[in-house]
Amino acid sequence: MQKRDAFLAASDWGDATLSPIAGDASTRAYQRLEKNGRRAVLMDAPRAAETAPCPRDADPAQRRQLGYNATARLAGPDLNAFIAVSETLRAAGLAAPEVYAANPSEGFALLEDLGDELLVKAAADPKSGIDEATLYDYAVDVLTELRRAAPDAPEKDGYVMLDYDETAMLAEAALLPEWYAPHRGERSFSAAEMSALDRAWREALSSLAAPSVIVLRDFHAENLLWLPKNQGVKRLGVIDFQDGLFGHPAYDLVSLLEDARRDVSPTIVTRAFDRYVRLAQEDGAFDEKAFARDYAILGAQRNAKILGIFARLIVRDGKTRYHDFFERVENHLRGDLRHPALAGVRDALKGATPALTQ
What we know:
By secondary structure, this protein is α+β, with helices and mostly antiparallel strands. The protein has 14 helices and eleven strands. The termini are far apart.
């Protein structure tokens, strides 16, 4: 509390009124500040709350020794990641929060307040003046604009954005047999089944195109803000991007359309997917069939990760509300696994989690 107050005082917000903002599943906390008609957001990212981030030159064995954050290349306690990515997105013409002040060593940042009108809220509110399909059009346009801008790797004070590599993806996919299967499957995976699943994932992931764009990694309706007074791609604000990596352009699209927390209608999914493909084709050579394959592979990998994370939040942290999301994510994974490129993964899941392969 004293460190927070000292940071706010040094930033000329010491006498502001503070009110909590609902957070996510991370260790970060947020508060809205109000002072003389101005507003800002305080991010509190305690450095001791998470394991170390990934050093840029660490090999897979070293990353595993450091812990999950390093293995999966999550930002962890490094606030410089948020600052660097925010600056990069803003330079690319997107509406990411400006960082007014920051003390990365203490884990505090003072951010521009983009408001409360999340895409999920605007889509359900007739008074928002925007329909759901158009909101998803804008979201696709954000991804398109970021791909077109093709910024270099964000870098700041020891942080540099790394690739979304096989080691990170395998670590995430392994959360399903580690946490989800014992909690919701029929039984735990045997050692032989774990080995088979690992081989199957490696085979599927090996067919992905090389990392080529910034992947924000949690690009979905609760991390996008409707900003009706803005124009163009800035009509949607982007938040929660500190774990971004260089990866495949299909990753954020599948994150948007296979949303763990809300149903996106098949009509909107098709419209948004087709819009992304059409805009990509307008920009040059684009292999739609390969993109659709990679979309399914990355969807399966992401949904396997999410099921594992939600089970971990329930079992380890007692956050039972995540039970409400299982059925939706399971359905997403079943759909992804029907793609021929994932036949090996589907077969490897049949023993301990047969319901996921139906």
